[in-house]
Amino acid sequence: MQIWVDADACPKVIKDILFRAAERMKVAVVLVANQPLQIPRSPYIRAVQVLAGFDVADSEIASRVAAGDLVVTADIPLAAAVIERGGKALNPRGELYSKENIRERLNVRDFLDTLRATGVNTGGPAALNHADRQAFANQLDRLLSQNFRTGREQGGD
Most exposed: 76, 88, 133, 138, by fewest CB within 10 Å? Predict the structure, then answer.
C-alpha cells in the first residue's frame, strides 16, 4: 500500500498527520503537486512535482495509483478514478469515498458547478476544524491498521 496525496490543496495539518503516520507505520507517502514542496527527510516520504496545469497532478495520481493504494484528496473526480482502479480515497475531513457514495458526490459536485456557472454563489467549504482533523486521523488509522492486519495475514511483515 502506498498513500498518494493530492498535495496542491491538501492542508498542512493533514500533511503533518500523514508524515507522522508514514514514520509510525513505515508506509510510503507520495505527495504530488505542481509546485515544490517541503517535506521531512524520511525514507517513507517523497514528493513528485508535475507541470503546472489544470488537473495535471490529479492525472498523475490517477495513472499511478494501484489497487489497495490510498489517495488523500478533496477532488471528487479524482476520487472516482481511484475507486475505479481499486484504490481507496479519503478526503481531508475524514470522509472515505466508496463505490456506494461516489456517484452521489459526483452528482452534487456537478449540480454545484452548474449553479456556479449561472452566477449563483455557492460559497466554499468551511475551514478545517479540530473535529475534521480528528476524523481524518481516526479514519487514516483505521485504514492503515486494516492494511497492516491484511498484510500479516497474507504473509507480510
Answer: 138
**For residue 99, how far is the Cα from the chain centroid?**
16
Instruction: State pTM to two decimals.
Output: 0.85
Give dist(CA 117, CA 7) in Å, integer: 26
Q: Is 129 exposed, middle or buried (0-12, 13-18, 19+ CB in 10 A)?
A: exposed
d(CA 50, CA 28): 19
Q: Are strands 28-33 and 45-49 parallel, antiparallel or unpaired?
A: parallel
pLDDT per residue as tens digits for the range 89-118: 999 999 999 988 878 877 677 777 777 788
- CA dist list (Å): 155 to 22, 67, 112, 151: 21, 18, 46, 6
